[in-house]
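Researcher: Hi, I'm a grad student and pretty new to this. My advisor asked me to get structures for two proteins we've been looking at. I'm not sure of the right format, so I'll just paste the first sequence and hope you can take it from there.
Model: That works fine. Here's the first sequence with its structure tokens right after it:
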Amino acid sequence: MLKTFLFILTYLCCLMTNMHAQKKQYYSTDDYKQIDSLTFTKNKDDFFYFKVESDSEVVNLKAPRIKKGKLTVEQFDAIKTSLNAGEHYFDSTAFLVIEYFPGLDSCNRSGDRTAVIANYEAHAAKIESMDNVKQFFIYQEKKGIEMYGNINWQADRDHAIQKSFFMLHFPCSSMVVIDRSGNYYSHRGEHNLSEAFTIIKKKKNFQL
């Protein structure tokens, strides 16, 4: 009887230890809105998934590849300032196209370098020829930008672009198109450069 009691007591102690050792799980969107585990696992192909751990808990983040929204006046002004643009720089501009390089990762380290350079330089030239579009190539970390050829990169001053659109590290690079009113369409992570032209041509893409 005593042996049985000691066995049960030992088992309960082990069970309680495991329960205390298990970290509490939280599920959230990248806007930090809490969701349940079922919602977290839906439509996986359309999202990126991130995990942030502490000693006692795990926060599981779900971030859509495509995100649309509208900047506040303050956010839009901060972005314009960060781009080193003058007061009247955007008076005749209908769209801003921003290509964003987060730094080296396994995605952007791979691929055909010659093809990448050709694609980026052709894309930059095509955007440059459009009267009502301004394009910027922004980096978060400078190392690696040479992989894209003769492109005029500039640093993300005050992290304005990162804070507005890309708080998480999305693989390869990301893109955002912003219209004159501050509406935006962002493709986080690897994307086709020509997507920017589709967004500009079809303004309904900005609809939430």
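Researcher: Oh nice, that was easy. Here's the second one.
Model: And its structure:
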Amino acid sequence: MPGRPGAPCTAGESRTRALAAAGSPAAGAAPGYAPPPEARPGSATDPPPSGGEGLRAVAAALVVLTPVLSAAAAAIFLLLGYGLRLADAARGPADTLVGTGWAAAAVAALAGLAAGGGLAFTAARHRANGQGATGQGATGQGATGLDGAGPGTTGPGGCGPGEAAPPERPAVQAPPRRGPLP
């Protein structure tokens, strides 16, 4: 008799319960993954943002791209310059490439420090406003709203409350070790 208190539930019962409850976590999680209406971007035909929004977007792109691109340029210039020096070919352009490489490395370092400072400032501002790093609020459950319990995990072994878990399977024994072959 399925669902008897104290009786172990069978694999078929557990499977039936899991299939019956499979839609509920997905349905409960769907609204959490949808972006809020005010965060959805406009259509592709909308005009570009005016005023401060457009300038902020350009500044954000420059803050991200400047350290990366200048570090790549520094690596390329330094490799080419020192390569030409090593080959004893075109000493003038080699010195120019090395100097340019070190200048690009300095720009990469300064831009990286500025970006790191901006990131630390933004993190401190968000922490002062009470916004966590995850943006989940006080629940800490994330977008699904679940606390780790999935379908069929209401009791031990996936059975309902008060029902016993299915018996454990015996562990598989390793074969005995044999001595070295003659």
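Researcher: Is there anything I should tell my advisor about the second?
Model: You could mention this: Confidence is low (pLDDT under 50) at residues 136-158.
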